[in-house]
Amino acid sequence: MKSVGSKSLGSTRYLAAACLQRRFGGGSAAPNILKSSYGLWIDGKEVPSDAGAYFKVHNPATKQPIAEVAEAREADVMRAVANSADAFKDGRWSGTEPRDRARILNRAADLLRSRIDDMSKMETLQTGRCIREYRAQLGRIPEWYEYHAALSQTIEGQLPPFSDKHHLAYVRRVPLGVCGLITPWNHPLLIASKKISVALAAGNTVVVKPPTLAPITVLEAARLLTEAGVPPGVINVVPGFGAAAGKVLTEHPDIVKLDLTGGTETGYRIGEAAGRMAKHYTAELGGNAAVMVFDDCPGVQEAVNGVAFAAFVASGQTCVSAKRILVQETIFEQFVSKLVDKVNNLRLLDPMDMACHMGPVVSEPQLKQVESQVEAAVSEGALVLAGGKRPTPERCPMVDGNYFEPTILRPPSPENSAFQEEIFGPVITVMPFRDEQHAIDLANNSKYGLGGAVWTTNVARAHRVARKTCAGVFWVNAHHRNDPSCPWGGFKESGIGRENGWEAFREYTETQSVVVRLAEDAEDWFGNADARYS
Fold it and tell me: How confident is the model over 446-458, as a mean pLDDT?
């Protein structure tokens, strides 16, 4: 593919729909909100990669390419980090008053809010998730910029008591430096925004490696932030593959913090690299959320509806998706019957159709992985109560897409692989429990601890179960609810550190203690045997 220079990238903002349809297969896959080519984003502008390499982004619903994106390799990442390091050192952002940074981030929130419709379409085209989901989810993303902008203006130092009147100590909170952000494909703009907003609010500069499956909206976010007034070099975006771009970013000595949302094994590798170089590290990794439905739930059908949303929104491709549905044995058969009926009536359509209930999984390899995991569970004795296969044309007209039917499995025991391992797709297990303690034991029978939920009208029980469940985020009669003020992260192998709230802001800053001697008398340690040491 011919390399596209920065001048042509900047001057050709959008292509007509007809051009994209001719080049990338047309139909719902290529409205004119997309450009044909995207560059890297470095130093406040779109630029080609050093090697002139590109990769294609595909629509999971059609498997047709929708755009090409410059592929960042080692030289590009090195250039981006050096640029962000210069931007941090010269104080163009880190030296800006928090109130002035907040004004810019609030302007970015306003710009983003005005472009939700286009951004939602872009997200659907590159991930295959339903347009209805993105319009609902992206509408809240500006709140993250506004919240962290407000938080940055409330930071106060400390004046700790010192041991005598001859010294004054104060503590100030300062930004870290250049932060490397590695973001996933399942919520491309949301999760990138959660990280970018707090990092910038705290005064850092960032180099973002977005997912190669879905990098476009992160690139657009960088453009939008620059338009809002974020100086060049403060945010750089380098789409590229993990073995090249990701490895260079995680091991670069000028990166002082790494923040990842991704798979557990990837998190381990990046954590090892961070540990070797004493980098700050935050990671939100895998999950296998348990949902406990008691016989005193608000209503069986209401709980069924809640579980269907928890499990199959985003085609089950979120780290907090409901995966293990635990139902009290007194209502188990009734609940499962209604859930099977609900799942069998979910509409699998073009995700750009507002009537679509569930779209495809993100890629052919992901589809094969889901199939393989279901086959393994069945070979171990799990019963297929619904789904379990790719849909027929009668069930789903998108015959070329990466679709898998919403699936319910009943494993013979908690040792079944479908119960123990995260299946990143529209697959859940159902299992009965006897009583409250049995439900908690089953819920905690996992190496993960990110999300969980309970359905009950017993307020005391809700609090008891929440306290005893190993989950960093827990819902009562709800799921997927998220807010910039509420910490988000996991227990056990689901990660380290937190997004959102004060916790995230503190993780993007560090403290400096300053001790001032007030005494006027001269000191001489070596000339005075009674001189003070500490």
Answer: 98
Angle of helix 131-138 versus helix 116-127 axis, rounded to 10: 130
3-class state of residue 198 by DSSP:
helix
Q: What is the distance between the alpha carbons of residues 304 and 337, in angstroms, rounded to a whole number?
A: 10
| 28, pLDDT greater than 70 | no
CA distance 448 to 6: 44
Give the pLDDT band of residue 31 (cuts 50, 70, 90). Answer: low
- The Cα 219–Cα 211 span in angstroms is 11
> Confidence band (pLDDT; 50, 70, 90) for 243?
confident
Distance separating alpha carbons of residues 86 and 43, to the nearest angstrom: 10
Q: Which residue type, as a one-letter code, is found at position 176? A: L
Cβ neighbors of 349 (< 8 A, separation 6 or more) are 355, 356, 357, 396, 397, 398
pLDDT (tens digit per residue) in 45-91 = 999 999 999 999 999 999 999 999 999 999 999 999 999 999 999 99
Q: Domains of the chain, with CATH numbers?
A: 7-285+500-511 (3.40.605.10), 289-476 (3.40.309.10)
**Which pLDDT score is estimated for 32?**
79
pTM of model > 0.90: yes
Whether 197 and 204 have beta carbons less than 8 Å apart is answered as no
Q: What is the pLDDT of residues 166-223, one digit of tens each?
A: 999 999 999 999 999 999 999 999 999 999 999 999 999 999 999 999 999 999 999 9
Q: Catalytic annotation on 319?
A: yes
List pLDDT tens digits, range 118-160: 999 999 999 999 999 999 999 999 999 999 999 999 999 999 9
Higher pLDDT, 461 or 15: 461
Tokens in use for 307? 């579980």
CA–CA separation, 180 vs 249, rounded Å?
7
Assess contact for 54 and 38: CB atoms under 8 A. Answer: no
Of 466, 416, 455, give the one whose Cα is nearest residue 335: 455
Spatial CB neighbours of 339, under 8 Å, sequence gap ≥ 6 = 304, 307, 308, 325, 408, 430
User: What number is the average pLDDT over the span 395-408?
Assistant: 97
List 71, 133, 220, 284, catalytic entry: 284
Q: Cα separation of 187 and 314, whole Å? A: 9
Q: Pairing state of beta strands 280-284 and 54-59?
A: unpaired
Look up 284 and say whether it is catalytic.
yes
Q: Rounded CA gap, 476 and 483, in Å?
A: 15
DSSP codes of every residue in 270-339: HHHHHHHTT-EEEEE----EEEEE-TTSS-HHHHHHHHHHHHHGGGG-STT-EEEEEEETTTHHHHHHHH
Q: Are 75 and 48 in contact (CB under 8 A)?
A: no
Q: Determine which one of 179, 297, 319, 396 is catalytic.
A: 319
Are 511 and 517 in contact by the 8 Å Cβ rule? The answer is no
